[in-house]
Amino acid sequence: MLDGFDVIRICTGYMLDGQLLDYLPAHAADQARVEPVYEEIEGWQGTTVGARSWADLPAQAIKYIRRIEELIECPVASVSTSPERDDTILVRDPFAD
Fold first, then answer.
1. Measuring CA to CA, how many Å separate 5 from each of 49, 93, 94, 96?
2. For residue 95, is it within any domain?
């Protein structure tokens, strides 16, 4: 999905009435008024389609996944690189720990 973008924007928060929020407000009226706050990271031109190992991913794709882990404060267990079931990279055992 993200292959070929020069820049990838990650929403890291929302501005509402001058206040930075790290969550999407629950109320629909507030959601309509928020301004997303984005962090931009470098994209990649290579393809991830069909990649079946961590080593097959472009370096910037790995950086993107690591940044997502930092933001959500949780390790990524698997990465899907196509709709095909076999095109899934098990990054870590989701049942370990």
1. 14, 30, 29, 34
2. no
Instruction: Quickly list DSSP for 61-87.
Output: HHHHHHHHHHHHTS---EEE-SSSTT-
Query: pLDDT, tens digit, for every residue of 85-95?
Result: 889 999 988 88
Instruction: Look at residue 2 and tell me if it is in a domain.
Output: no
- Residue 63 sits in which domain range? 7-90
**How many domains does the chain fold into?**
1
HSE toward the beta carbon, residue 44, CA cutoff 13 A: 16
For residue range 22-38, what is the model confidence (pLDDT) as tens digits? 999 999 999 999 999 99
pTM of the model: 0.85
